[in-house]
Design a protein that fits this description.
single chain, alpha+beta, Beta-galactosidase, Chain A, domain 5, Immunoglobulin-like, 3 domains, ten-stranded antiparallel sheet, nine-stranded parallel sheet, 12 helices, about 30% strand, binds alpha-D-galactopyranose
Length: about 725
């Protein structure tokens, strides 16, 4: 396993436990991609036959061999302007105005450990887990140098990719600089991607690849609710347990684009990286640019295995800090309980009730600062509103801690209302285009985080809050898409850099705060899951999954999210019934079963509940404590899709000693068929006992025969079955 180089054939082979990745420098010094798939132990170059194809031209020096065309050859980092007409990874504008780059192989280096990317989050090595391969390419004419980075985690079947680009002796402008280019020359592929909208993020969609270019992208200045930067290419016949699947996740939180092209010969190329439609970057001679990272994983055993690979790498090698693997406190958030309408008495009433029920942390959401009585004012003024909260944050935190609970706070640092002291003092700090009225969204504008003075102000304001108050948790929100992205700190020719500079500025600010306040649990948020990506998980090990808290809608949202992201990252709460977003009524039990497949908390007015409901909540919290480790660190199995009359999923402990099966009936049927599912991931030879009924089954019976649920009627009933291994056969 690991990285090998065959000097004679100039062949690079990366082997992980179950996969292999191969490339070779050919006789023209072009770095060809040969293979990514199940491990074969062979040189896979034999697969790549060539023939002369009309209208696919030949590079200079290859004119005598008309079958040699970059238009038909698989490449590791394809460039525009070389006779390759497919989607490129790199597009440059040279200082003479020409737009070609022609990269040729120059050398390589293998290092122990995992490379880091300056100023950007990336997968890291916990010690002895990874190796790095760096391949150097160069344009012989312009001197443009590209280093391709490969981070290899052999035990996890993970390969990461990023590129570093350095200009030669002349300035150059990057018009597109993708993180990775992946080639699948053979096969029939489907694209799975995760689209959505505010309140309905990461919806699973699977479509066969047409002979066209498919784009999954965001130009909203954020990861977006609309397209997650995560795609899967899978064999047309692949399912949860069978078939080839390739996953690509971008570790980035700004504008992104993935293009997947199925070409004239059915060869598929996918490029993923920063969205070039809103990007350009000027490099003066000798300057470098680093792309964000892409995480690649391949499974020849279906989508479940692919998801497990993603979960593991994100949980163990992206998330950081003291909460990375730890159980998170059960919280109460006051947003859906009070919205902006609260004062100290109301907050403390809710907190006392929460403490009495066994809730461990109180989170004070939007509305505690400045003139923030609605969403028209106050963003930017991070000073407590003493009219609402006369004891201030210090006093409030004290009272909450005295109840035995931790104290958390909502902030939205990247934004400003025009009706705020901050905007009145520094109107130039917000993104607006000179001479034009801005596009407003929720009455707020985005602060220009590409600027150091803006970041310094925010660092000062937030670090003061964290230093002066006993705060255990921060919910970091971001509640609009960007527009009018224009920085007064950059000249006209460099405005194409602002969006990426913004993202780098955000990472710098987050890095500073999270490394200084290590005791604080950070939760990401962007109107729910609008910035749900691995880069944000590098700073906050959990992200509020969606502003839609309806348990039945959440089944779909959490299902889609589960393909790429671990349950430990999914912020999920029990809210009121009828639900505030959909008006749907669901049982309290069902709401808890769904919220438990996440970081678990409550977000409703506890004082309006009956004594019976309060007692039920005490029970739910006890159940959550019992299963929390299994849920957070167990393997997650999707047992059904979400378009049936029910949804089922399962957690299995890493040592297979226990399992939690979850079922929600989304459409109860009169005199319907029994609900029957085949469980997964158990030890086939072990005997498991259903803790509630005492019934015993072998793992083999539950997996190969399946489990038949009792008849369940009523509105959206749910069931959890806890199976405990009692015997080996
Ligand atoms: C966003 C968040 C919500 C809440 C509100 C407050 O929409 O996703 O959870 O914090 O902002 O304004």
């Amino acid at each position: 396993m690991g990285i090998r180089f065959d000097r004679e054939r100039r062949l690079f082979t990366i082997e992980t436990a179950n996969t292999a990745y191969q490339m070779a420098a050919d006789s023209h010094d072009v770095l060809q991609h040969l293979y990514y798939g199940r491990r074969t132990g062979s040189d896979m170059s034999y697969m790549h036959r060539r023939c002369d194809r009309g209208f696919s031209g030949n590079i200079d020096g290859a004119e005598e061999n008309r079958s040699y065309s970059l238009d038909t050859i698989c490449q590791e980092y394809a460039c525009a302007g070389t006779g390759d007409y497919r989607v490129p990874a790199l597009v440059v504008r040279n200082d003479d105005g020409s737009t070609c780059a022609d990269l040729r192989y120059r050398g390589y280096e293998i290092r122990e450990g995992k490379y880091a990317i300056p100023g950007m989050p990336a997968v890291y090595d916990n010690g002895g887990e990874a190796q790095t391969l760096i391949i150097s390419l160069e344009d012989p004419v312009s001197g443009l140098a590209v280093q391709l980075f490969y981070g290899v985690f052999p035990d996890m079947d993970i390969i990461t990719r990023a590129a570093q680009i350095r200009s030669g002796s002349r300035p150059v402008t990057l018009e597109r600089a993708m993180s990775a280019c992946v080639e699948l020359p053979f096969g029939q592929w489907d694209l799975i991607h995760f689209h959505g909208r505010h309140c309905m993020e990461r919806q699973f969609e699977r479509t066969p690849l047409p002979h066209a270019i498919q784009t999954v992208a965001s130009r909203r200045g954020m990861t977006s609710h609309h397209h997650n930067p995560f795609v899967i290419l899978c064999d047309r016949h692949a399912d949860e347990d069978h078939g080839d699947c390739l996953g690509m996740i971008l570790v980035y939180s700004g504008d992104h684009r993935t293009e997947i092209e199925r070409d004239q010969t059915d060869s598929v190329r996918a490029v993923m990286g920063i969205h070039d439609g809103t990007f350009s970057w000027e490099l003066q001679p000798g300057e470098t640019f680093f792309t964000p990272e892409v995480i690649l994983t391949f499974s020849s055993k279906g989508l479940t295995r692919l998801s497990h690979n993603c979960h593991r790498i994100i949980r163990n090698n992206i998330c950081r800090g003291r909460y990375k693997l730890a159980r998170r406190p059960v919280l109460i958030n006051n947003w859906e309980a009070t919205y902006f309408d609260f004062n100290e008495d109301k907050i403390m009433g809710l907190a006392r009730q929460a403490a009495d029920l066994g809730i461990e942390m109180f989170v004070l959401d939007d509305g505690w600062f400045g003139a923030r009585n609605n969403d028209r004012a106050g963003l930017g003024d991070w000073k407590v509103n003493l009219e609402k909260l006369p004891s201030g944050l210090v006093g409030l935190a004290e009272q909450i801690h005295a109840l035995g609970m931790r104290f958390g706070l909502w902030i939205e640092p990247e934004m400003v209302n025009e009706d705020s002291d901050l905007y009145r003092a520094h109107p130039d700090w917000a993104f607006t285009v000179p001479g034009r009225g801005p596009v407003r969204s929720r009455h707020q504008l985005v602060l220009d985080l590409s600027r150091e003075d803006v970041r310094d102000y925010l660092y000062g304001a937030i670090s003061a809050i964290l230093r002066e108050n006993a705060i255990d948790y921060i919910k970091w929100d971001f509640n609009r898409a960007m527009e009018d992205v224009f920085s007064r700190a950059l000249p006209a020719g460099r405005q194409g850099e602002v969006r990426h500079r913004y993202v780098l500025g955000l990472y710098r600010l987050l890095d500073r705060l999270t490394s200084e306040f290590t005791q604080v649990l950070f939760e990401g948020c962007a109107g729910g899951g609008g910035r749900f990506d691995p880069a944000m998980l590098y700073y906050s090990p959990q992200i509020w999954c969606s502003d839609d808290t309806d348990a039945i809608e959440r089944l779909k949202i959490q299902y889609g999210t589960s393909f790429g992201y671990p349950v430990s990252a999914v912020g999920s709460h029990v809210s009121a019934s009828p639900n505030h977003q959909t008006g749907r009524s669901t049982p309290l039990h069902t709401r808890a079963v769904v919220a438990m497949s996440g970081t678990f908390g409550y977000e409703l007015d506890l004082n309006s509940l009956s004594e019976e409901e309060k007692e039920e909540i005490r029970g739910q919290i006890a159940v959550y404590h019992k299963y929390a480790d299994l849920i957070r660190s167990g393997d997650y199995y999707r047992l059904t899709e979400t378009d049936l009359d029910y949804t089922a999923w399962q957690f299995v402990a890493p040592d297979l000693s226990e399992s939690l099966v979850n079922l929600v009936v989304t459409h109860p049927l009169a005199n319907g068929p029994f609900i029957h599912v085949k469980l997964k991931g158990l030890d086939p030879r072990a005997v498991y006992e259903d803790e509630a009924s005492g019934d015993r089954f072998t793992g083999a019976a539950l997996m190969y025969g399946g489990y038949t649920f009792p008849v369940m009627t009523g509105d959206y009933p749910a069931l959890q079955i806890h199976l405990v291994r009692v015997l080996f056969e």
